[in-house]
Amino acid sequence: MNQTKQPIWTKDFLSISLVHFIVFVIFYTLLTTLPLYVINELGGSESKGGLVVTAMFITAIIIRPFSGKILDWGGKKNILLITVVVFTISTFGYIWVDAFAPLILLRIFHGLSFGILTTATSAIAADVVPDARRGEGLGYFTMSMNLAVVAGPFLGLTLTQFVSYQFLFVLLSIIMIAGTLSAFLVRPKEIPKAPSKESGKTSLRDLIEQKALPIAAASSLVAFAYSGVISFISVYADQLGLASVSSYFFLVFAVTMLLSRPYLGRLFDARGPRIVIIPCLFIFAAGLGLLSFAEGTVSFLISAALIGVGYGTLLPSLLSLSVQAASPERNSYATATFFMMFDLGVAAGSFLLGIVVTYTGFSMLFAGSAVFVVLLCGLFQMMLDKKQASAAEHWRQQEVESSSR
């Protein structure tokens, strides 16, 4: 029986994807509206507005290395339900917070549940997707996060023009209840835990999946390059006199990602990672390059399309490689390691590129990012060569063992 015929769109997969999508809609809606809330409603400064964003990122990054251990200890389904309830309670908290200090504390608390919850959803998705269709399946799954990049800011920025921030927070809380109910529908398969050599002791090597770390670290460099887009695209569009079309950038990004994902996901599974990852790095670089000298609406939106195909395909492909690098019982640790490095790449990029752009301007920043991504092609080429050589050696050893029996 051909394994590729195993279904992806099962009840468990749809349910966990919906949870993931709703969580990230909440995340990106708050990401874009809370700085405005701090400035306009709480009388805070721009720096305080930025701090409410950074606080959640920092706590999510700190908890990531421990997420795999937490999932291993409590079970993926149990931790999923606990963290989705805590995340929902945190979302309700914004309704009553009316001062900056408690808002920061709420963001810290929210970040802890966010870091564990998104690790749980990703690890469960990797479990419920058939092994032979993992690239395609995880491609569809991560698409929910990329769609939230469009839906969240659009929802938040549109509604705040017509309703109060409190109304927005109430609406987000109601939406999150739907996510909580979806989590209860998930029935993940529980993979037996690996036997522990030293019970009671936990080292850094236990928390971080060493086999997934190289690809996760390389992926953080891709996230670093992308952080310039997500952080500065609206400001850059305003500088170009394209503020009226800036909201369409991520819409075009999402559409091209949706159209290309099914084909490229199947290609990843059928032909291997090299034929997808290397071309998509070049497409991503081309999008950044075009963005660097965009002067009108057409070139601006074409760059969005290229970035949507390139970067939009890279994220699930690299996540799939990270999961494949680890043994099944270390799935949670591999997922946590990947997203820890990804978050670090975005956070570091947003901070460092923010400094760089004050000296170079946006055009040079995106041009430099394009060159940086092209250079990454060499790094990924070497990593994929090593992976291929390791796989070939593994098969040779198996053939020798089978022939000697």
Automatic annotation (TrEMBL):
Keyword Transferase: no
Pfam families documented for this protein: MFS_1
Record's keyword terms, sorted: Membrane, Transmembrane, Transmembrane helix, Transport
Location relative to the cell: Cell membrane
GO molecular function, one term: transmembrane transporter activity
Protein name: Predicted arabinose efflux permease, MFS family
Organism encoding this protein: Salibacterium halotolerans
Cited InterPro entries: MFS, MFS_dom, MFS_Exporter, MFS_trans_sf
